[in-house]
Structures are given as C-alpha cells and as structure tokens.
Amino acid sequence: MGEPNKPVFPPRFSPGIHLLTFRVLEERLTAGFPKNERRRLIWERFRAFLQELQSLGIPFCIYADGSFVTASPSPEDIDIFVTAAAADVEGLTPEQQSFLFSLFARDNLAIVKLRYLTHPFFAAQENERLCRTWIRFFSSARDDSPKGLPCFDLAPDDLL
Known about the structure:
Blueprint: E1 16-19, H1 22-30, H2 37-54, E2 60-65, E3 78-84, H3 86-90, H4 94-104, H5 109-116, E4 118-124, H6 128-138, E5 148-154
Parallel strand pairs: 1-5, 3-4
Antiparallel strand pairs: 2-3, 2-5
C-alpha cells in the first residue's frame, strides 16, 4: 500500500463510496479473473478473516482497498478498514476484546497478513476523525485523485 514503484492498475470502482453486499463485492472483485489462483486464494483468506470477526457476534462495517480492488492480475493482499460501534466492542468479553485487538495490532501485522492475506486497520465508529482519515486515505489514489471505495456491512449471521 502506498509504494511509489508499484505498477498502477485501473480501479474496479468509480470514485465515491459504494455500499454493496458481500456477494456483490465478491463478484465485482473476482469476475474477469476466472483462472487467477492468487485472487482466489486472497479471497478465501479474506473470507476466513471475516469469519473470525463474525465469531465475535457483533456487526462490523468493512471498507476494501488495495491492489485487490484494481484490475491487478497479481495483487499482494486486500487492504481493509473495519469499524464497529464502541458499545459493541465494550460489550465483548475480555478474551473476545483481546482477540479482536490482536487481529489489528501492529505487532501482529506480519502474522495476520501471512495468515489472511489481509492488511487490516480498525477504528470505533464513534471516532469520527480517525474514520474520516482512513476513508479519505482509502478513497485517494497515489496521485491524490479520487477513487472508488467499496464497503459492506458484516453481521454475525451473514452467510459468507
């Protein structure tokens, strides 16, 4: 993310935020790459990451970005920004909170990226300043031009 020497590929979404379902996002990001094993693997690992979030039993909002959200034939991973209501997070048990925070901790980033091929960031929905910062960052191309940012709501009982 943000590396100046990386090739630039056309985006899969027009500028703006695109609220989609998980299934529509999957179709938009995997269609056109039927034999691309790398994209299939990234999507499977991303789904596993989402299932970990679902196991906590609270709703999340997920914004997707990075080379996976472009026409790149060989993306590295999928970058995501995740939000949840602070009250929902506070309502988790201490063990669940610890698990949630471990998925986003800087010291675990290499392990999380390796296991899930996902580069995650998190903020409570009530932290409007941080949420705006991440959304602005994910909505801008390397040259600061606007780009599309797909997002979807993830409920504990959604089928993935």
